[in-house]
Amino acid sequence: MTGQKSLYDSIGGVDKIDELVDRFYDLMSLEETLSELRAMHPKDLSNSRERLKFFLTGWIGGPDIYSPRFGHPMLRARHLPFKIGIKERNQWLACMYQALADCGIDGNIADQLHESFFNTADWMRNQPN
User: Fold this and answer.
1) What global pTM score does this model have?
2) What is the C-alpha separation between 11 and 48, in angstroms, rounded?
3) Dihedral of CA 12/14/17/22: which sign?
4) What is the pLDDT of residue 2?
């Protein structure tokens, strides 16, 4: 074992994931520039918040709590009903990047997460624009 901490442990574990996801959805609801992104979500964000918290926990190196409850993430398939182009990808990223900054996740860890979030968000695009 190398002794290297996972991103999950490096950011502060479950408490920081909860803070990050809550800030992400709060920003989505507060910022006019993210209104189209917000419109893609249900009025009640409770389920969305829970699912993202569970998913991110495992995705960044914490325990896998998503799959036992919801099955395989199948991210792209689960997002196919939504029209996701460059504009929607960029709104999602702007919201997540701001949430990272607001939660004090910066430096090398933020850089790693920015890259991972970009790659995943770009892979979710299903519109040609």
Assistant:
1) 0.91
2) 21
3) negative
4) 58
